[in-house]
Structures are given as structure tokens and as C-alpha cells.
Amino acid sequence: LSVKGPSGAILIFISLAAFSILIKDIRPLKIFFNPLGILIVLITGGFWYLLLIFEIGWAESLVLLHRETLGRFQEGFVHREPFYYYVPVIAAGFLPWSLFLFRVKKSDFQHDFIKFTALYAVVVFLFFSFCRSKLPTYVISAFPAFSVIASGSVQRLWSNRTKIPLIFFFILTAAALVLKSLPLDSMSKISGISSV
Q1: DSSP state of 25
Q2: What is the dihedral of CA 88, 94, 99, 102, to 10 degrees?
């Protein structure tokens, strides 16, 4: 709430609404309107807005928030990228775990928690894919959800204990650690993705 305006709350609302429709139960969506939760969000996130208003004034604050939220979403005056931009971003940024997403099975989505996290990951991906302005950090909040989704594949691999998949897994992990230890500007040159 205090970083990019209401987008965080919007993502949670869409995810809960989609989940309520999926399981045909309105109770998950009601969580969004919990008075105590709203109060906590207003205290923690709203304090930043008060500081902004005191610093630059009410009118300038509205202009700034509009430019940094709707302006970036609709107009994309900076960091304009194609719709598919986050496909390689997630594939590379989530290595080696992103490879396990291709081994996900339908049975992995039996539990409601897995269903919700999957919906949240999809909502974040689509929301920011439609956004005109794009940066790799915009989809970071989806990575924990992708971790939950991939956990079933990782567990099956570990349970089998076959040598080839395990060796392949450790090689990928080592390669990912090496890549992520490189400076950000070097990673940008390798991937061709702007980091600013």
C-alpha cells in the first residue's frame, strides 16, 4: 500500500474474489473486509500517505499518486515492455525452481491453500503483464506463491531419490547461485532486461 498505491490491495481482492468463485463460498472474500485487518493496513500503509501530504500538500500528493499508479498502468511513460515481459523474468529469476513448475500435476491443487496461492500468482502475473510500465521487481510478491506451487514437484523428485534428477537439480542450484551473485548490471546485460 505504501509503495505503489492501492495495487497490493487490488491484487489481494481480485485473488480472494476469484477464489470465492472457484470454491463457491463467499467467506474467503469476507476476509478482505475484516475491520481489524483494514485498521492495521490503514495504520501501517496510511502513515506513509500522511507524511507525503504534510511534505508536498494534498493536491501534489494526488498528482503524484495518479502518475505513479494509473499513469504507469495505463500510459507506461517509463519502462515500457511487451506483454510477455514477465515470462523470462519469472523463468530466470525463479531458477532453479521455475523448472519444477513444468512438472506440476493436477493432483497438486487438491488443497484450498494451493488453489489460492496459484490464483494469486496468476493474478499478479496477468495484472502486471497488462500494465504498460514493467520492472522485474513488480512481480516479486508472486514468488512465494510459485514456491508453494512447485513444492509438489520438488517433493516427488526428492521422494524418488533417483541419481540423475538429483544431480541435475544440484547443478541447476549451483548455476542459479552463481548467476544471482553477479552484479545487477551484469545480469541485465546477460538477460537483456533493464534494471532501472
Answers
A1: -
A2: -70
Q: How many residues are listed for the chain in this entry?
A: 196
Residues 68/4, Cβ–Cβ less than 8 Å: yes
Query: In degrees rounded to 5, what are phi and psi of residue 133?
Result: -85, 130
Residue listed under C-alpha cell 510500465? 133
Quickly list DSSP for 72-101: IIII--SSB--GGGHHHHHHHHTTTGGGGG
- The per-residue DSSP string of 128-196 comes to HHHSSB--GGGGGGGHHHHHHHHHHHHHHHHHH--HHHHHHHHHHHHHHHHHHHS-HHHHHHHHT----
What pLDDT was estimated at residue 194? Answer: 47
Backbone angles phi, psi at 80, to 5 degrees: -75, 125
Q: Where does the pLDDT of residue 69 fall: very low under 50, low under 70, confident under 90, or very high at 90 and above?
A: low
Average pLDDT, the chain: 76
Neighbours of 1 (CB within 10 A): 16
Whether the pLDDT of residue 162 is over 80: the answer is no
Record the pTM.
Answer: 0.71
